[in-house]
Design a protein that fits this description.
Length: about 160
């Protein structure tokens, strides 16, 4: 399992997940840069993603929905804030309805994904920042750690294929 550490800090309002992959930085970057690859790892295994729009540049937007085992759909979006290929990506991630209108009742997280060379492979650090401890706790209660860990764990199989 590539996830080596998960930490949530209610004082700093952050959730940090660290994962190590046996693939070079450029290969891990491609997982997010290519929407067809991203679909294979964005949702947890039982909620695969479909990427609808993928404009991975500052000011760009990524839209997607995840489909559950019962056919239920859950949409979301990224507003891309910074891109430094292949080492980092920053975006705001929010929940949306199925026409990708943001859902104001659920939190928007600020995310920074960083990819660095480590032990012949890549260390990925995923940091999500929240506006309040209540928002962080809301996503923790919704299972964000289990979902993100499951999603990230799919990267190993993708890069090995």
């Amino acid at each position: 399992m590539p996830v080596t550490d998960v930490r949530h800090d209610l004082d700093a309002l952050t959730l940090t997940i660290t994962a190590d992959f046996a693939a070079p930085v450029e290969r891990i970057w491609q997982v997010y840069a290519d929407p067809r690859q991203m679909e294979k790892v964005w949702g947890p295994p039982t909620y695969p993603a479909t990427v609808v729009e993928h404009d991975l540049r500052p000011g760009g937007r990524v839209t997607y929905f995840m489909t559950g085992p019962e056919g239920d759909k859950h949409a979301g979006y990224w507003l891309v804030t910074a891109v430094e290929a292949p080492s980092s990506l920053s975006f705001d991630d929010g929940f949306a309805d199925l026409d990708f209108t943001p859902n104001p009742d659920l939190p928007v997280t600020k995310n920074v994904y960083t990819f660095t060379a480590h032990d012949g492979g890549t260390r990925a650090t995923y940091v999500s920042s929240f506006d309040s401890a209540e928002q962080l706790q809301q996503l923790l209660d919704m299972g964000v750690v289990e979902g993100a860990t499951g999603a990230i764990s799919q990267i190993d199989d993708l890069v090995a294929s």
